[in-house]
Write a structure and sequence with these properties.
alpha/beta, 19 helices, globular
């Protein structure tokens, strides 16, 4: 082989190697939990649209079963190379990775894309840890106080906007032999919604968030006040009796039959309402207790983030910019009816109820997730058990003992977390 031919082959090899390295740099690794049929179709459509608009970029798109992803994500984030972009949940589940330095700071992306001006304030707060943004929230559902207008009118009751109006509504409905508020607590997560909203309305969403992050004490007098207000509802005979005998759908049957008037529940409730009475369901935000306290709302939210050790951070930022864009959120709304976190998305295609829910969330000062999303899994289990103990006998429950037990759990779990860091 001549020296000239060897030189030529070396030149070709260097070009091929250089091209391969360039291609590797242009690959964006995206790990997704969108394994369900409809979610996967949307996921693939989003990726295809990005690649069509960016022909020099290739997305290496991997999908893991939704439940398996919850376990696999920890391994993903410490792999070499780690995925650049990942799907995930807002709240404590996101903060867990932020606190451990496994999520990239997306503040430059928010600044570059002008998202501070187009994302609802509550969602920006949801993405923020210590003043920086780490998460791109893209869709959600809301929680609200649902009611049957016809049942309320029968008793001459208006949807309650304040705490006093809620208590008065309970009295008026009971006088008409109507169950004021239905609830099924066989699985006690439904009771957690009452704790969430009472704490946010009494003490503010910032205190509630700090409590969820194990930064405040469960024996604090502010938490005691939550149970004092909660007990008032039982004093006014507001709730369905023997609620622990019912799943949440079973409790909804009382409302569907017109035997109950209200239900604190998530925006998925219409899925369990017969079509012929769906128009006789409406909702309002949880009543105001202290008008000087900022408005917080539970709106479980999904979205995306970037790994701290992403191999292609520039490409990851660009993919996240697309996922968080108005066009991508409109695509999600069109394909699956996903509710947007941006304020500039065209809402004309949404139902009246969806538009009302969107306005409810976008007008909130703080958007939180839900008790079992905002705190750690172990603390959530302890909390749900405590709520179940309280509502089993609310008039005689030893609240102080319940809270002391929760505080012992909080201190232990917080210490274990600190030891891991």
């Amino acid at each position: 082989m001549t020296i000239r031919r060897i030189a030529l082959l070396l030149t070709v090899a260097s070009l091929l190697i250089g091209g391969a390295l360039l291609a590797q740099d242009d690959v964006i690794r995206y790990a997704s939990n969108a394994s369900d049929e409809g979610a996967r179709e949307l996921d693939e459509a989003r990726v295809a649209a990005f690649e069509a608009a960016n022909p020099d970029r290739i997305v290496e798109h991997s999908v893991t079963d939704h439940e398996a992803f919850k376990q696999a994500i920890r391994a993903f984030l410490v792999a070499d190379p780690a995925p650049d972009v990942l799907t995930w949940f807002a709240g404590n589940r996101m903060n867990f990775f932020v606190d451990r330095g496994l999520a990239a700071d997306l503040t430059p992306l928010y600044e570059r894309e002008g998202w501070y001006d187009v994302y609802a304030p509550g969602f920006i707060e949801l993405a923020t840890v210590d003043g920086a943004q780490y998460f791109v929230p893209t869709d959600y559902y809301w929680w609200a106080l649902y009611f049957r207008p016809s049942v309320m009118e029968q008793a001459g009751v208006q949807p309650p906007e304040t705490w006093d109006e809620l208590l008065a509504a309970c009295d008026a409905l009971r006088a008409q032999d109507i169950i004021p508020i239905t609830i099924g607590t066989r699985a006690p997560w439904t009771a957690a919604a009452w704790f969430d909203f009472l704490n946010m309305r009494i003490n503010g969403p910032e205190f509630h968030r700090s409590l969820m992050l194990l930064e405040e004490s469960y024996t604090d007098e502010r938490v005691v006040a939550v149970f004092d207000y909660w007990r008032q509802l039982y004093e006014h005979d507001c709730f369905l009796e023997n609620s622990a005998a019912y799943e949440w759908q079973d409790a909804l049957d009382f409302m569907n039959r017109g035997e109950a008037a209200m239900y604190l529940m998530g925006g998925f409730i219409p899925d369990s309402v017969p079509d012929e009475i769906e128009d006789d369901y409406d909702f309002v935000q949880f009543p105001i207790i202290d008008p000087d306290v900022p408005i917080g709302i539970d709106a479980p939210t999904d979205g995306f983030f970037m790994a701290a050790n992403a191999s292609n951070p520039e490409g990851g930022m660009d993919l996240l910019a697309w996922f968080g864009s108005r066009e991508a959120q409109e695509l999600a709304a069109e394909m699956l009816g996903r509710l947007p976190t941006r304020t500039d998305v065209d809402l004309s295609g949404f139902t009246e109820a969806q538009q009302k829910g969107i306005a409810l969330v976008q007008s909130a000062d703080y958007v939180l997730q839900f008790y079992d999303r905002d705190t750690t899994p172990e603390m959530a289990e302890a909390g749900l058990n405590a709520f179940a103990e309280f509502i089993a006998d609310p008039m005689n429950a030893d609240v102080q003992a319940i809270l002391e037990s929760l505080e012992a759990d909080r201190v232990r779990i917080a210490a274990e977390q600190a030891a891991e860091e």
